[in-house]
Description:
The protein has helices at about 1-10, 60-70, 115-125, 130-135, and strands spanning about 45-50, 55, 75-80, 85-90, 95, 110, 125-130. Helix content is about 20%, strand content about 20%. It has a 4-stranded antiparallel beta sheet with strand order 2-1-3-4. It has a 3-stranded antiparallel beta sheet with strand order 6-5-7. The longest helix has 11 residues, at about 115-125. The two termini are about 15 Å apart. Mean pLDDT is about 80; it is low at about 1-15 and about 145-160. With about 160 residues, the protein is an alpha+beta fold. The chain is globular and about 40 Å long.
Amino acid sequence: MRALWVLLLGLIGCGSPAGPPVIRWGEEICDRCHMLISDPRFAGALRLADGTTRQYDDIGCLARDLTEGDLQAKEIWLRAYDRDQWLEGETAWLVQSQRIASPMGFGVAAFGGKDSARTHSQRWSGSVISFAQWLESFQPRAPKGKQSGKTFESNEDQTDQ
Length: 161
């Protein structure tokens, strides 16, 4: 799993702006699906090795770009569902549930800790998984209304960092 993060984050190069982008909610569009990024609770962003920043309205759009494209991500951020802050992808925990109405219907929300994710997963009858594990097992889905219904199981061996 460590090798995946080294590949994804490609910690190379200098001179790029630090930290996640500043998104103007309701004004900027998703780099994957071209919808407005209007709900911060589900947003994601990444910085490529060349310093280019990409932003997303749904964590699933970010995952599709990473798994279907040839992107060399240097940094990955997910917006916390329950707080007004960005989380580093490497440390984020996700809740996945068909009851989560994310913008493109991927049904995932990010949290800063496993305990917080577990609390919210009970509310939605969802499963808890680290972002790294979820990305490794990511299966692209059709947009809202055409989902396969597949969920990802919790891995109790994965611990908070």
